[in-house]
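DATA SHEET
Item: assembly model
Revision: 1
Owner: S.N.
Input lines:
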Amino acid sequence: RPRVIVMANQKGGVGKTTTAINLGTALAAVGEQVLLIDLDPQGNASTGLGISQAQRVRSTYDVMVSDTPVEACVLATGIPGLHIVPASFDLAGVEMELYDVRRRSYRMRDQLSRFCAGGPVCGNDVKPISYVLIDCPPSLNLLTINAMSAADAVLVPLQCEFFALEGLTQLMKTVELVRSSLNPRLEIQGVVLTMFDRRNNLCGQVAEDVRAHLGDKVYKTVIPRNVRVSEAPSYGKPAIVYDYKCAGSRAYLKLASEMIRREKQL
Amino acid sequence: RPRVIVMANQKGGVGKTTTAINLGTALAAVGEQVLLIDLDPQGNASTGLGISQAQRVRSTYDVMVSDTPVEACVLATGIPGLHIVPASFDLAGVEMELYDVRRRSYRMRDQLSRFCAGGPVCGNDVKPISYVLIDCPPSLNLLTINAMSAADAVLVPLQCEFFALEGLTQLMKTVELVRSSLNPRLEIQGVVLTMFDRRNNLCGQVAEDVRAHLGDKVYKTVIPRNVRVSEAPSYGKPAIVYDYKCAGSRAYLKLASEMIRREKQL
Ligand SMILES: Nc1ncnc2c1ncn2[C@@H]1O[C@H](COP(=O)(O)OP(=O)(O)OP(=O)(O)O)[C@@H](O)[C@H]1O
Ligand SMILES: Nc1ncnc2c1ncn2[C@@H]1O[C@H](COP(=O)(O)OP(=O)(O)OP(=O)(O)O)[C@@H](O)[C@H]1O
Ligand SMILES: [Mg+2]
Ligand SMILES: [Mg+2]
């Protein structure tokens, strides 16, 4: 069974998508088989991996609403070992469309269970998927709840800014709520500090605060603010492919190995 | 009747809240009477203006769900001429709670009409409100739709990054949809470029792109990335109060005067 990890944080613009894309790529680079599920109607993870709107004939909307099997929606990304189920804009209507549908909070979980029972392989790959990463929208709505109820763990990308810190308590409460009502195995796998700028005092203070409160839950690897990371999506490539040597790429590769070490300890 | 302006952009972290707080403060500084409505469950605009959780006894949740009049939820901010209706976490449940309520897309509009018919004054102020600014969450859900159906115009804060640019088309479509179905007077008042970093090529390219597509809709005033702006919320103050002379504050003061000029021309 693959490990299912959700990138979640209702605060906007903290690096959820950038982490999903680059962590996914880094895990594939070290030999893992990764499936990325884009559950954000904005579809930034799909765009950042070069999937055009025209290619998104089937998407996570079909998985969530019309019960299409996951393997029927999977696309290759051009990166060996990394596949994606792309998002489309109509995902924004899922909360209303599933309003009175039974097991509406378990749609993603039920679909992933079917996928896992069947292999879980993507396309012509023989090796089964070892990691599923789910990118979430910036809210705690039905899409994020579905991702959390399907997951083994939550990875929290956290920008070192005051507003982002404020949202952390609410996020922890939501994870607790999902754990007690929908998914008893859900845990916070870790918190990753993103867009860290050494010259900015506030970043250092927020990082200290977070480590004081959450201790070892906070990854040692810190992702620096690095313009190459924000340029990469306009070429439809992960930073690791766009500029392998830049500080951002090196940080994501380090993050992948730290994550694999953590997973082994669990 | 006050002018009602919505800060909207479903892309997260682009500066909606920072613009609502600092533009509101700048307009109050030049003599306008401003009411800020925090319609984001995260409640960052309320925190950024120093409103503690304990003070949020009544909030926009009460306005939207329990039909409490706006004037009963208004709080002073300590900044002369600027009042706020704070947000609370239970706002996140509004979409479900109003699922089958009649006129659910017009709740904010109906409430603001009542407020305007009664004066519209806040607390002991004699001068009526001339601007209502509404801060929205990073999504195009019922809260944002309510804000747009209540508004005269949408102000779009736009970070000069690739993913933020990608979301612009979808936002324009939503404004068009609201204009044709809920609020025929709604228009895009302008696009404000935020967190602009001169040293970063991508910023320059995105800014050029946006001006080429949207022409005069894009404000001449550009808000620079400025660490003092991101420090201010941790003191519960707008940047303009925290550090009057910093580049960010000066830009927001310029934005306020450019906005007043635009409003006069309409
Ligand atoms: N390490 C980094 N250095 C520089 N820019 C970054 C970095 N990480 C992310 N960015 C940029 O910051 C912006 C926000 O990141 P991203 O879109 O990944 O956040 P998000 O949490 O997924 O946003 P949303 O809440 O809208 O889904 C993007 O434009 C991205 O390119
Ligand atoms: N001009 C600026 N210079 C530096 N930092 C800024 C600037 N404007 C905003 N920020 C910081 O960037 C982060 C995102 O800004 P803000 O929270 O206002 O965006 P938002 O669009 O309201 O986010 P959300 O989508 O979560 O509501 C905040 O931490 C804020 O302090
Ligand atoms: Mg994202
Ligand atoms: Mg905000």
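QC remark: The interface with chain B takes residues 10-14, 17, 41-42, 44, 47-48, 89, 92, 95-96, 99, 137-141, 159, 161-163, 166-167, 170, 200-202, 227, 230-231, 233-234 of chain A (CB under 8 Å).
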